[in-house]
Each structure stands twice: as structure tokens, then as C-alpha cells.
Fold:
Amino acid sequence: MENLNERSKKVLYAVIQSYINYPDPVGSRIVTKRYAFGLSSATIRNIMADLEEMGFLAQPHTSSGRVPTDLGYRFYVDSITAGGDSYSNIEIEILQGLYRRLEILKNNIDLLLSETTKSLSMLSHYLGVAMSPASDMTTLSRINLLKYQANKAAVVLFTDEGLIKNKVISVDPEISQKDLNRIAHYLNSEFSGSTFDEIRLRLLREMSKEKIKCDSLISKAMSVCKEALYFPFNELFVSGLAEVLELPDFADLKRIRELSRAIEDKHVIIMLLDKLADSKGVQVVIGSENSMEGLKDLSLIVSPCREGDRQVGVVGIIGPTRMNYAKAMYIVENTAKFITRMLAGR
Amino acid sequence: MENLNERSKKVLYAVIQSYINYPDPVGSRIVTKRYAFGLSSATIRNIMADLEEMGFLAQPHTSSGRVPTDLGYRFYVDSITAGGDSYSNIEIEILQGLYRRLEILKNNIDLLLSETTKSLSMLSHYLGVAMSPASDMTTLSRINLLKYQANKAAVVLFTDEGLIKNKVISVDPEISQKDLNRIAHYLNSEFSGSTFDEIRLRLLREMSKEKIKCDSLISKAMSVCKEALYFPFNELFVSGLAEVLELPDFADLKRIRELSRAIEDKHVIIMLLDKLADSKGVQVVIGSENSMEGLKDLSLIVSPCREGDRQVGVVGIIGPTRMNYAKAMYIVENTAKFITRMLAGR
DNA sequence: ATTAGCACTTAAGCATTGAGAGTGCTAACT
DNA sequence: AGTTAGCACTCTCAATGCTTAAGTGCTAAT
Structure:
């Protein structure tokens, strides 16, 4: 990047711009035609050869136009992050309209996130993704235990992030609703405000104490707690496959298979999003910059939804590396803000 | 079907059998080779021409082999339903193994169903689908209302089918937990055992009564009820797209697009499953037998999971019309039984 | 009723060809 | 010295024609 003069940069941007808009490798002639450099194609050719040598461009085969490499995109993305493009009013209005439609879902996080992914994919024409926060990092606000059948109880769990989860656990038939109330009361007074990570740790310590082991009711209660507080929270929502398959980038059966495997696994995407969730602001991961198998030659635009230190989720877009980064970043940034506002404004 | 003698039937079955195993149109020569009829290819040719005339077979183009029509598959499927194929021990063991792995999820219906779809698609190599019952038909077992924040309450709802759902509703800040308890108590005593369909109807009638309109607390309570009891229950789980894309039937980009649109919409599939959920036992819908746009040339094998009159869900398989119906039916039937056992055994 | 034989049809694979787009290099130009 | 025109070269892609293989329908013989 050091020995990259202003003119070369401009050419690089032009190539990327063109390739984003038209899915064909771009040659020197096209650059001179579509972008007024006042230079001949031969000169552009020389510059493009230099850019290729520096690793910003590549040729699919000798004598086709050039295509940006991941490095090229990276350079481009970094430059627009610094700049901060502004967007047309129309696009902003579409965004606002979609958000308004989602506002009625603010009481149901899962549904809100899942619908948000649909908006994301509609707006961007790429995959929309959203993830609720991992359980370890969320803080317990309140827990309720409801006796359900002879040997079952429902755990209802409120977190500071506004998540509500329920699950059924098996309990000793001897335990009554009163007992459960007492246990819940204990848990609330003891752990409310702590993250689940901490809670699990402290519970483990408590349970190893001698006196607890002896008292059968308490030990039963403890087993209830242990089961009640283990929640595999983080849930991933993905949509827009149909949208993505319209792109020329996914005309290839092999790529489609790869993508659909990635979507169905979820595991890989969750891991990646988890990694990116800690940072703040919009993150861009381009193609091979992520080391996940099956996500090569895909790009991710991700933003955590956080307010202070309270993280309520992650939203993002997944698409081919040949992506309209500026637009995608704009959409993700605003969607993250919207979700944050929605879930924090309580 | 009347004027279809035993020999013609055998040939029809042979053609279907062969086509299911090898995805190429089957010609008369192949029939004589793979299945020992003791007849020459010319004779088979004549029979196949007859079968085509009757609408059981079709030719993709003059002078290619023949392919079963939807009607042909229908004939075949009806015959195996009557027969009842038995399966190898190995396959039964694989099934049993997968089921055992799922047993630990019996307390979490949604997760159970969603994992079941994965098993279904693994076993069949087609799409696995599962749906929890529609809210109208489920019966309320118990309702709990938990005050949550100043103007919010969590509704926790238990049904006789073993479903547990929660949602957040907005409430008047004046309403206390005590009030909510009273409302919940009223709802439980009044409506426990009724289906949500009935409940909504009765609530509507109650609310129109004069005296209730006057009392402000009761009217507030009623508005709580109304919101609390409206649940869009029916949830659809689908998986196995990656699996299906390995099939030669989905080598075509257009079909893939169609399929993924169907999967993302869910709406269409839900409607179709809803229709089939009422009947009992395994249902087979072949290709154009369903009138849903986007599901043409796909087949569905579906079975409700019911015990007595209590329906706990629907499971099924979606695949190309060129499907191993016998196997798919076997898998669906047993999976439905398993799910029923899992959720009814309480 | 069955079958052998044959002419006919069609898809699919293969090599050939020509057009088109793009490149790199060299030599001329400013 | 930077820029450009010109040109030979490369590679893809679409079209073409040819051949092969599989399958059919029909007719005449068994």
C-alpha cells in the first residue's frame, strides 16, 4: 500500500466498483470507458499489471479481465470505512419502513431477530443473519420455577438483555411448588445480576460444601438449579438463500452445496459470529480472512448490538466476496442500531 | 387400472423400481436385463407402450427410456401400502440408534422436532420436516402470568400436548403480580381443558357483556387475556437441503431455486401439512397431487403424531417425485410413532 | 402371442472453427 | 520518461457438424 500512488488507487477502486456492479472480469478497455481517466487503455493496462503484482487484482486466466483479490477488497473496504458514504433518501426510507414493521415484535426477541434476517436479506440481496447472545455473557434478571406435572417443572428465565427462555426439567416428585418457590427465591436473591458463567461457577463451589451434601432437600434443590441454569442460549437465524441463488455468483452447483451446508451446520457460523461479537461497530471479514472451512470465498459484514456493556445480539450479512460492501455495511450498521434501540429501550 | 393384467403391473413396478435406483429413464432392454421376465425386449416394449397410453409412464422425448408419471407412482405406492414391506435389521438398528439419541430431548418439544428433522433427512437423504400442532387445536392445560417490568408481563402457557410457550405482553402499570395471579387463576379455572379456538370464542362473548365493560380492572384484565391467549403456535422445522442437493434430481439451478423458495416461505408447506394433519397414518402426496405452487414435482410423505384425539405434531419427508417411497414411508411411520411415544409418555 | 430385425429419432459427447475480449510487449510519440 | 498505438498472442465461448449409443415403433416371421 506504501508504493501505491493516488492514480493506482483510483484504478483499483474503479475495477472493484465495476466488478461489483457487473459480474464480469474487468479489462483495461472497460475501465477507460466507464471511468474517465483521460488515459489510454495501454496505460491502464500497465497500472493494472502493477496492481496484480502487488496482489490486489488477479486474472481468472491469461487474457481475461481482472478481478479483485481478497486483499483488493480489503483495501477498498478500509478506505470506505474511513470515508463514510452517505445514502440516498429513498434507501433510507425503505429501511425505516421495514424497521417500523418490525417494531411490533419488540416483545419477542427470537421472532424479532428472525424477521430481521428477512429484512436484511431483502435489502441486501444477500444472506441475513442474526444471533441472540451466548448464555455465558447474559446476566440473570429473574428466575421462576413452576411445577408442571408430578415429576416435572418449567423453568422461566429472564435476563437483563430482555431474553426470556423456558425449559422443562425433571424434578423429584416430592418437591412441591412451595419448595420450588423457595428455591427460586434463593436463586434470585443470590444470583440476580450475575452472568450465567459466574453463576455456574459459584453453584459448583456451593455444591461441593459438606453440609449441603447431607441435607437431602437442599441437595435435590441444587440438582434442580444445576439443570435449570444450563441454557444453550445462542440461537442463530439465517434467511435469504432464495435471494442469494439469484446472484450470478451462485450459478455453480458446487458453491451452492457448500453454502447450504454452511447454513445447515450453523455451528461454523455461530463460532465465527461469536468471535466477532466482542468487538464493537461494524466488522468486515472478506473471503479467506476467516479460517472457517466452507465459508471461504464468502464475506461477512457483522455488527454486535450493544448498549454499554450489555450485548443483546449480533446481526449481519453473508454474501459472496463480490459484494456491495458499502451498501451492506450501511444496512448492517443501521440494523444493529435499530435492534439495540428496540431491545434496550425498555 | 382395470384392464391392467398381472404382467403389465410387474413391468410397471420394474420400471419404477429401476428408476428409483438409477436416475436414468428406463428402456425395454434394461427391464429385460435387470428383471428376469423371460420375455424379449420387443415384448416389453409393447407392454410399456400400453402403459404409456394408460398414463402410467411417459417419455421425456421420443426414443429415450420411460419414466413413471405421478399416476404411475400413485399406483405403485398404493400397492406397497397394502403390502407392507419389511425392513432389514440393520436399517431398523440405525433408526433405533438415532431415536435413542433424541430421547434426552423429550422435555423440549421444539428442539426434539428440529433434531428429528435432521434424523429424517439423514436417514432418507431427502428433506425432513416437522411441525408442532396449530394453536387452535391444542388444549390449554395451565397458564401463568409473571410480572416482569413496570409495564410488561410474561405469559407462560402449558398445553395438554406438552407444549410450553412464553411470550411477553404489555400490561397496565397498575396491574400487580397479585392481580395477575388472580387473572391467571380465573383463566385456569374457566378455560383449562378447552382448546384455544373455544377459548377465544368464549372470551369474545364474555367481553361483550355490559358489566365487564364498566369495571376498569376487569376490563384491563380482559385485555391481558386477549393478548395472552393469542399464540401463533404452529412452528415448522425443515432440514436436509444440503442432503437433497446431492441428488441428481436437483442438478438443475431452476429446481434448486424453486425448492429453496418453498423452504424459506414455510407458509406453503405449513398450509399443506395442516391439511394432511387431520387424517391418521402415513399420507403420501405425489407431485402434482398437491396444488401448491412451488411444490409441484415434489412428493411428500407425512404422518401426524397422534395419540387418541390429542395431536402432538406432524412429521414428514419431502423429496423429488423420483423417491424411494417404500423406505420413506417406513421411516416416517416409525418416526411418527417414536415422537408420539416420546411426547405422550408423560 | 411373441420375437427378431430394421429404419428412424434423439441426446450427448467430441473435435473444429471463428469471433471476441483481453493481455503483454515493443516501438514510436510528446 | 511517461504515454500510447499497434500487433501478435492467448484463452474462452458459442456454434457447427459428426459420430455414437440408446431407445423406439413397426413389420414380418416364428
About this structure: The interface with chain B takes residues 107-108, 142, 144, 146, 148-149, 152, 154, 156, 158, 164-170, 239-242, 245-246, 251, 253, 256-257, 260-261, 263-264, 346 of chain A (CB under 8 Å). The two ends of chain A are 47 Å apart (CA to CA).
